[in-house]
Write a structure and sequence with these properties.
This protein is of the alpha/beta class. About 50% of the residues lie in helices and about 10% in strands. The protein folds into two domains: about 120 residues, Response regulator (Rossmann fold, 3-Layer(aba) Sandwich), CATH 3.40.50.2300; about 80 residues, Arc Repressor Mutant, subunit A (Orthogonal Bundle), CATH 1.10.10.10. The protein contains ten helices and five strands; from the N terminus they run E-H-E-H-E-H-E-H-E-H-H-H-H-H-H. Helix 4 packs across helix 10, helix 7 packs across helix 9 and helix 7 packs across helix 10. It is globular.
Length: about 220
């Protein structure tokens, strides 16, 4: 995995680089501002950008928005000290594939980071519940059309993904079905919503403020 670090504190950048390289992660560059992050992402095409929110000049949210729009194959994971639910929601709206706090345990950090590389969203459960609550507010605009095309089970899959349940095994346990059935439902969701991976499902669900609760059955 090739990673670009974007943080305005040199000690944080160097510390992250040492930690990542100790776990065989290739750090391809380090940016001190959002502008540098956007430029370096375009030049280096990393697999993942670890993005701080508060940086001088262009902030992390705007940089995330630009990278996600210009380089959809590059996954952005916000790494911040902020505990504000609003920052999480804005990061997901901007296209972030994950949102991690800087006090996260290393084992959990690397587990989620490698998940991002496979297309899974990185949302620790203690922060993901806020997304579920937000998604639970129905948007009448999506009582028909594409969202209506999803079955009740597929909507449950979307809600679980938004809540941080990302592995097939955990999804299967939550839904009471086999992992093979989970893969079938996830593939249907991706096909019906014209999306490429699970992280995009989370972003789509938040962007349109949709969830299974509050929507009538097909």
């Amino acid at each position: 995995m090739r990673v670009l670090i974007a943080d305005d504190h040199i000690l944080v950048r160097e510390g992250l680089r040492s930690l990542l390289e100790a776990h065989d992660v290739d750090v391809v560059g380090m940016a001190a501002t959002g502008d540098e992050a956007v430029q370096m992402a375009g030049e280096l095409h990393p697999d993942v950008v670890l993005m701080d929110l508060a940086m001088p000049g262009m902030g992390g949210l705007e940089a995330t928005r630009l990278i996600s729009a210009q380089l959809p194959e590059v996954k952005v994971v916000v790494l911040t000290v902020s505990q504000e639910q609003a920052d999480l929601l804005e990061a997901v709206k901007a296209g972030a594939q994950g949102y991690l706090r800087k006090d996260i345990e290393p084992a959990q950090f690397f587990g989620l980071l490698w998940g991002v590389a496979k297309g899974e969203p990185a949302l620790p459960p203690n922060m993901a519940w806020g997304l579920i609550e937000e998604l639970a507010r129905p948007n009448p605009e999506h009582r028909a059309g594409v969202w209506r095309a999803l079955t009740r089970r597929e909507r449950e899959v979307v809600e679980l993904l938004a809540g941080g349940v990302t592995s097939n095994r955990d999804l299967a346990r939550q839904l009471g079905v086999s992992e093979h059935t989970v893969k079938f439902h996830v593939r249907n969701v991706l096909d019906k919503l014209y999306l490429q991976d699970r992280a995009q499902v989370v972003s789509y669900a938040f962007r349109h403020r949709i969830a299974s609760r509050g929507l009538s059955s097909p």
